[in-house]
Write a structure and sequence with these properties.
By secondary structure, the chain is α/β, with parallel strands linked by helices. It has 3 helices and 5 strands. The chain has a 5-stranded mixed β-sheet with strand order 3-2-1-4-5, covered by helices on one side. Strand 2, helix 3 and strand 3 form a beta-alpha-beta unit.
Amino acid sequence: MPQVMTLRGDVELWARIKPLTESHDAEWVNVARDLDTWPGAREAARLTMRRDGAVQARKLYSPAVLADERDREALHEMAAHGMRIRITGTPMSRGTFFIDRRTSSTGEP
């Protein structure tokens, strides 16, 4: 049976997710409203690119991520390093992580 754990706030979420996203062999998907959906999201993307782990990372964003030129540039950089980036046609209400197709974490709305 799957284990269910409730995390309270961004600090607990980051403490649980960070080691998983930094794993060299983990495949992960991040569904997010924008590039700052959780504390440290931008820095985690930079670290992933630096260690060439981007090829196992996939990101799905709301259309709002395209509103800012700096964010669009960041998306282009992530894609250039191998992250697979997709933009939804409609806004999303929350962010979610899927790690190795077995662990997921959903942020608060």
